[in-house]
From TrEMBL:
The chain crosses the membrane at residues 309-331, 343-360, 380-397. This is non-specific serine/threonine protein kinase. The keyword Iron does not apply. Its EC number is 2.7.11.1. Keywords: ATP-binding, Kinase, Membrane, Nucleotide-binding, Serine/threonine-protein kinase, Transferase, Transmembrane, Transmembrane helix. It catalyses: L-seryl-[protein] + ATP = O-phospho-L-seryl-[protein] + ADP + H(+); L-threonyl-[protein] + ATP = O-phospho-L-threonyl-[protein] + ADP + H(+). It comes from Enterococcus moraviensis ATCC BAA-383. One of its GO terms (molecular function) is protein serine/threonine kinase activity. Residues 1-270 form the Protein kinase domain.
Amino acid sequence: MENINSEPALFYKEINPLTDKINGPMLVQKIDTKELFVKKCYPLYLEEHLTTLKTIKHAHLPKIQECIIQDGKLWLYEEFVQGKTLTEVIQSSERLETEKIVTIAMAVLEALGALHKKGLVHRDVKPGNIMITNEETVKLIDFDAVRTVDGEKESDTVQLGTMGFASPEQFGFAESDERSDLYSLGVVMNICSVKEYPKKHLTEDLILRGIIKKATKLEPTERYQTALEMHLALRQQLSKQRTAAKQNKRQISTSKKRPVNITMNARPFTNRWGTNTYVNQVVTRGRRVLDSISLFFKKFIPGFRTEKIWKRVVALFFYTMLFVSIVGNVFGQPTRSLKISEFVDYLFIFIIPMLLFTNFLDYQRKLPLFSSDNKRYRYIGYGVLFLFWVVITKAGLELNSYIYKQIN
């Protein structure tokens, strides 16, 4: 861990307090560079989390300059973000355009993805903690409620969050994790759209409704599981909206330019390749298919569910070798019955255990032992899974051998 001391505090000059609270945020200026920062007091138990936060450099997160312990208090010096909070933007507008809501949400998801990658959960995503800078850049701020994901606790040690935006698990029902932040962002999006909580009035916007509904499910397993998954869903919806808008614009433009055809029975000649509309539709559909395939791999296929390149390379190599081995050995058999017998052997010895023990299609979330927060129960679950594989493999191979003998 980084050595934290009070010496760097000497290089900053206090300008003025930003609130009337005691030990509230203070605007300070670094003496040598003249840069402005916000000096804010945090609880000492957040020292390790904020030190980790300092290592994250991201366009949608404020720059953390210093973590200093001084007079028994922890002070964080972070970038002074000039602009408006999303709360102020919402209050000053009758309604935000759908595309702007999606753009803001995607930026917040990118910030959350950076936090989650380091094992941190923000736990207080709300309009007041989302800044829109003077340059129209979105920044997720305020880390009073940040914590790390433990994975072994039944609930959070410190229950924090803003009522209405915080997920159910943040109030003692379970341990909060990445999905808790996605729940809060879903609420924020609904507030942006109709200025109401989704429980009271879910937006009717066709682009946003389905995404908000899924993000704010009470059961975490039914929500988006990662910031990347929700980001892809928003990107697809945004792409649909832009494509539809372009098509409408072209149709209006074409109808204005099209001459009146006074021949009642003549059918005007149209060449669908003569305009870009058809090509754009094909390209858009292709992108949707690729996005769907990418999302499927990242969500379900072992080895591709993380952002680590080396794991994906190893997984791709393993799947390729397994496929080549199966095809080579199965189709190398001289008779049809031997081909079937060889494939069944591969099925029980290699394919089934791979599917079982790598949690293919995330099926373990639906099993009681694996969905438990207790590590001991999960170990028992793997033991039961191993016995299950041994039993079905023995039975399957014996049946395969018996059938082969009967045929031949």
